[in-house]
Specification:
single chain, 337 residues, alpha/beta, FAD/NAD(P)-binding domain, four-stranded mixed β-sheet, 24% helix, elongated, binds flavin-adenine dinucleotide
Length: 337
């Protein structure tokens, strides 16, 4: 059981900034995210896009903003449960909550801050017969720990940044050739990555199939081979250890919608007059996941909401103590040892 002061669901920009604000009040945070990397939409949808409305940064790439937020929260040593979706919540007699993920990891905290954005990012699964039988037995929808796949026979499907980035990664690290299968001849990924793929293909490090797709999976106790329909309409069976269909992720509010929270327009209703608390005391919702009159889905607004939410979190966690706001310019940042 992971125990913390504040359990944050969602490691997007707002969840990450919550760690910093909570840390200033000596509150320890742990974050859960359904995807294997921090950064939410900024990492998943637009890492290379510049953002122009973050105070103090006339222009910053989304991916760089995530790096800065990670750096800013690091002194407060947050814990992470990545690649797992917060599935259920149970209130305890002492007022705290236990949140369990889809992988069964349990977390206990007196305060929950939901920073779930548009919802948990779920993989878009290809329509292949019996694919679920092979899930986690050779079929993986995300690369949680690349080291596990080093020197395995890896095939990847997809034409976006994630598919190409991982293909390049494995082609450079693995002794065995990496396979890339894409339905079209044109890729949606960055030009540099596409050029690199063709370059690695020419060097013999990538087996490339365009205008092709994986149509069948074979194996008895797990994946043994994939069957590809190639560009000249032939079927080819290839032995593999792991196949990653990386067709992107789509957000779903998912299990949070069944937690008894008041939901409006697919978002969680909060009290914006005080602290962005939900209808369940002790559970707050900040960032894109919440709604109230005048709500704006902007990173900046989420930062403000998180700052106010942790003030109330402090009072719940320390009912007998008073907290006086001190400027960091006077105190500096005192992280956790
Ligand atoms: C193309 C594009 C451009 C944009 N440009 C700007 C801009 O220039 N300026 C600006 O201010 N905003 C911009 N936005 C909006 C901005 O990205 C969002 O306001 C911001 O990402 C919200 O942050 P968040 O932390 O609330 O949520 P998110 O970034 O959505 O992160 C939420 C995280 O929660 C996780 N999660 C959700 N439910 C669960 C669960 N049950 N279990 C585990 N994890 C869960 C998700 O996997 C996700 O990683 C843009 C958005 C898009 C799509």
């Amino acid at each position: 059981m992971i125990k913390t002061d504040i359990l944050i669901i969602g490691a997007g920009p707002v969840g990450l900034f919550t760690v910093f604000e909570a840390g200033l009040m000596k509150l320890k945070c742990h974050l859960i995210d359904a995807i294997s990397k921090a950064g939410g939409q900024l990492t998943e949808i637009y890492p290379k896009k510049p953002i122009y409305d973050i105070p103090g940064f006339p222009k910053i790439l989304a991916g760089d903003l995530v790096d800065r937020l990670m750096e800013q929260s690091a002194p407060f040593k947050p814990g992470f449960t990545l690649g797992e979706r917060a599935e259920s919540i149970k209130k305890q007699n002492d007022g705290s909550f236990i949140v369990t993920t889809n992988e069964g990891t349990r977390h206990k905290a007196p305060v929950i801050i939901i920073a779930g954005g548009l919802g948990s990012f779920e993989p878009r699964k290809p329509k292949i017969l019996n694919i679920e039988v092979f899930e986690k037995k050779g079929v993986e929808y995300m690369v949680k720990d690349p080291n596990i796949f080093i020197d395995k026979k890896v095939f990847i499907s997809g034409g976006g940044d994630s598919a190409l980035d991982w293909c390049i990664y494995f082609a450079e690290k693995n002794k065995k050739k990496v396979g890339l299968v894409h339905r079209s001849e044109s890729f949606r990924a960055h030009k540099d990555s596409v050029e690199k793929i063709y370059h690695l293909h020419e060097e013999g490090k990538i087996e490339l199939y365009t205008n092709a797709e994986v149509i069948k999976l074979n194996g008895i106790n797990g994946l043994d081979s994939i069957e590809i329909r190639t560009n000249n309409n032939e079927n080819k069976i290839i032995k593999v250890d792991t196949w990653f269909p990386l067709f992107g992720l789509s957000p779903k509010l998912g299990p949070i919608a069944d937690w008894g929270l008041e939901i409006e327009k697919n978002a969680i209703k909060v009290d914006n007059t005080i602290d962005y608390q939900t209808n369940i005391p002790g559970i707050f919702a900040v960032g894109d996941v919440n709604t109230y009159l005048g709500k704006l889905k902007l990173i900046l607004c989420g930062f403000h909401e998180a700052t106010l939410a942790v003030q109330s979190a402090y009072k719940i966690i320390n009912p007998d103590k008073r907290y006086t706001l001190k400027y960091t310019t006077v105190q500096g940042i005192q992280g956790f040892d």
